[in-house]
C-alpha cells in the first residue's frame, strides 16, 4: 500500500519534491498539502490531494501517514514538534531549526518519544560521489584525514538572502558533510571575510571563509560564495596523511569548439543534486513506511544549527568560537557492531 504523505510548504523546493514524489518515485501518494499562501498550495496540490488550512490539521489527518516539511526554517520547530506528538515520520528540509535552543527542544522531544521519526534534508549524504569519497576516507586508503576543503558556490541568491545566510542557511550543508565524511565532531569555528565581491549587489557580505575545527584536530575550510554567476559549483577534497581524495568533476558532455574544450556547469542545487534528492526520498519512503526514520537525524540537525550559531558569533567577534554540545541521547548513539551477550 502506498505511503500517504502530506507536504507543508509548497514553494520552490516543496514543488520540486512534489514532482519527484508524484512523477519519479514509487510507493508513495501525496494526499495533503498546506502553505500559508493558500493559493500556492492549491496550485501545487497534485490531483486528489486535500488542501489543509493549517500544518497541524494536515499532520493530524487520518489520511496522512508521514509528512514532508518544506516551509521556511523558523517554522520548522513547531511543525516538527506536532509530528512527534502525532507519532508520525517526517522529512524536514534544512536547516532543521534556526536556533540552538529550538534544536535542543526537538532532540529532547524525539528522545522522549523513544524512536527516530525525523530525517533532515542533508541530501549530500545521498549523492553517489560523496558516498564514494566517504568510502575512500573510511577505508584508510589516504591515511587519517588532516584537512577537508569544501567549496560551496551559488550562481546567485534571491533578493531576501542576507549576510547572515551564508552562515545560518548555506553553511549547514558543509558542516553536516564534514562531520559525516570525517566521522568527527565540530568543536570550534572561525570566520573571515576577504575583499567583498562587487557582483551580487548591495551590502551582501560575500564571499566568506569559515574554518571548522574538528575534535580530532583536523581542520575544514569552507568557501561560501553566493554570486559567482557561472553556475552552481560544489567541490570537496580530503587531504590525508598519505594521499588526497576529491569529488570528481560532474560527468557532462565535453564540448569542443572555437571557445575551447569544456563541460557545462549545473545551474543550481536542483540540477547538481537531482539524483541525491531522489535517493534521500527513496530511503525516507522505506523507513517512513516502517514508522521510523534513518539518514541524517535530529541530532545532526542540532549539530549543524549549533555550528551556524557559533559561526554567527565568530563573524561578530572575529575570534575562534567554541561549540558546546549537550550530552547525546541514547537514541542517537551508533548501534554496537556486535550485540552484547
Ligand atoms: N536541501 C536543499 O538543497 C535546499 C533546501 N532548502 C530549504 O527548504 C526550505 C524552503 O525553501 P524554498 O522552497 O527555497 O523557499 P520558498 O520561499 O520558495 O518556499 C517556502 C514555502 O513555505 C511556505 N511557508 C512558510 N512558512 C510557512 C508555515 N509556517 N506554514 C506553511 N507554509 C509556510 C511559504 O509560503 C512558501 O511557499 C528552507 O528551509 C530552505 O533552506 C531550499 C533549497 C534547497
Ligand atoms: O540548501 C540550499 C539553499 O537553501 C541554499 O541557499 C544554497 O546555498 C544551497 O546550496 C542549497 O543546497
What this model shows, in words?
The protein is of the alpha/beta class and 341 residues long. It folds into two domains: 3-124 and 275-297, 3-Layer(aba) Sandwich (Rossmann fold); 128-268 and 304-311, Dihydrodipicolinate Reductase, domain 2 (2-Layer Sandwich), CATH 3.30.360. It has helices at 12-24, 38-44, 55-60, 76-86, 100-113, 128-138, 165-182, 269-272, 274-289, 298-317; strands at 3-8, 28-34, 50-51, 66-69, 90-92, 118-120, 145-153, 186-192, 208-214, 219-225, 233-240, 244-246, 254-257, 260-263, 321-322. The strands form three sheets. The chain has a seven-stranded mixed β-sheet with strand order 12-11-7-10-9-8-15, covered by helices on one side. The mean pLDDT is 96. Bound molecules: 1,4-dihydronicotinamide adenine dinucleotide and (2R,3S,4s,5R,6S)-2,3,4,5,6-pentahydroxycyclohexanone (ISE). The site of 1,4-dihydronicotinamide adenine dinucleotide (NAI) has 24 residues, from helix 1. Belongs to the Gfo/Idh/MocA family. Its EC number is 1.1.1.18. Homotetramer. It catalyses: myo-inositol + NAD(+) = scyllo-inosose + NADH + H(+).
Amino acid at each position: 500500500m502506498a505511503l500517504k504523505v502530506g507536504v507543508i510548504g509548497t514553494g520552490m523546493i516543496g514543488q520540486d519534491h512534489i514532482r519527484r514524489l508524484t512523477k519519479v518515485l514509487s510507493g508513495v501518494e501525496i494526499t495533503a498539502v498546506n502553505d500559508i499562501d493558500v493559493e500556492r498550495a492549491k496550485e501545487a496540490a497534485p490531483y486528489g490531494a486535500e488542501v489543509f488550512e493549517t500544518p497541524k490539521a494536515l499532520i493530524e489527518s487520518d489520511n496522512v501517514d508521514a509528512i514532508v516539511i518544506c516551509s521556511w526554517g523558523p517554522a520548522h520547530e513547531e511543525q516538527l514538534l506536532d509530528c512527534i506528538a502525532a507519532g508520525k515520520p517526517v522529512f524536514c528540509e534544512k536547516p532543521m531549526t534556526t536556533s540552538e535552543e529550538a534544536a535542543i527542544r526537538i532532540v529532547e522531544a524525539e528522545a522522549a518519544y523513544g524512536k527516530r521519526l525525523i530525517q533532515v534534508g542533508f541530501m549530500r549524504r545521498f549523492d553517489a560521489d560523496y558516498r564514494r569519497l566517504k568510502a575512500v576516507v573510511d577505508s584508510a586508503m589516504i591515511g587519517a584525514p588532516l584537512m577537508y576543503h569544501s567549496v560551496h558556490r551559488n550562481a546567485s541568491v534571491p533578493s531576501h538572502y542576507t549576510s547572515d545566510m551564508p552562515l545560518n542557511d548555506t553553511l549547514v550543508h558543509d558542516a553536516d558533510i564534514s562531520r559525516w565524511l570525517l566521522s568527527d565532531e565540530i568543536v570550534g569555528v572561525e570566520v573571515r571575510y576577504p575583499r567583498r565581491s562587487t557582483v551580487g549587489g548591495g551590502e551582501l557580505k560575500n564571499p566568506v571563509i569559515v574554518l571548522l575545527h574538528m575534535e580530532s584536530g583536523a581542520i575544514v575550510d569552507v568557501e561560501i560564495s553566493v554570486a559567482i554567476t557561472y553556475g552552481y559549483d560544489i567541490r570537496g577534497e580530503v587531504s590525508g596523511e598519505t594521499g588526497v581524495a576529491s569529488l570528481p568533476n560532474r560527468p557532462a558532455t565535453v564540448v569542443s569548439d572555437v571557445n575551447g574544450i569544456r563541460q557545462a556547469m549545473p545551474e543550481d542545487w536542483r540540477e547538481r543534486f537531482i539524483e541525491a534528492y531522489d535517493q534521500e526520498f527513496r530511503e525516507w519512503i522505506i523507513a517512513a513506511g516502517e514508522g521510523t526514520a534513518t539518514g541524517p537525524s535530529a541530532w545532526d540537525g542540532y549539530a549543524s544549527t549549533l555550528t551556524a550559531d557559533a559561526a554567527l558569533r565568530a563573524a561578530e567577534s572575529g575570534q575562534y568560537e567554541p561549540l558546546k554540545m549537550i550530552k547525546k541521547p541514547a537514541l542517537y548513539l551508533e548501534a554496537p557492531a556486535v550485540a552484547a551477550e
